User: Which sequence fits this backbone?
């Protein structure tokens, strides 16, 4: 079934959550508590953010990216930026 532009934000949320879950499995961090410890985000905060990914901050996405090495195309679609802007944003957060 083709994706409709009207639901782009919904699809972007689903894609980023699928990407996080997939990478959790690859890094043996399937439990949210293990992932929270690995990315240094409190468990209750991370659990809440994964239930509603709109609340994810750039700093939290950066931490998730450092550990899970997320696909920047999916992150950029989720954040509403181009891939180049997301790379710059994540790198600026690291250097700051």
Assistant:
């Amino acid at each position: 079934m083709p994706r409709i532009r009207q639901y782009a934000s919904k699809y972007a949320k689903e894609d980023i959550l699928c990407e996080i879950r997939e990478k959790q499995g690859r890094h043996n961090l399937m439990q949210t508590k293990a992932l929270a410890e690995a990315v240094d985000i409190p468990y209750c905060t991370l659990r809440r953010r994964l239930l509603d990914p709109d609340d994810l901050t750039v700093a939290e996405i950066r931490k998730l990216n450092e550990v899970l090495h997320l696909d920047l195309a999916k992150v950029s679609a989720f954040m509403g930026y181009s891939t180049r802007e997301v790379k710059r944003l994540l790198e600026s957060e690291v250097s700051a």
Notes: DSSP finds six helices and no strands in the chain.
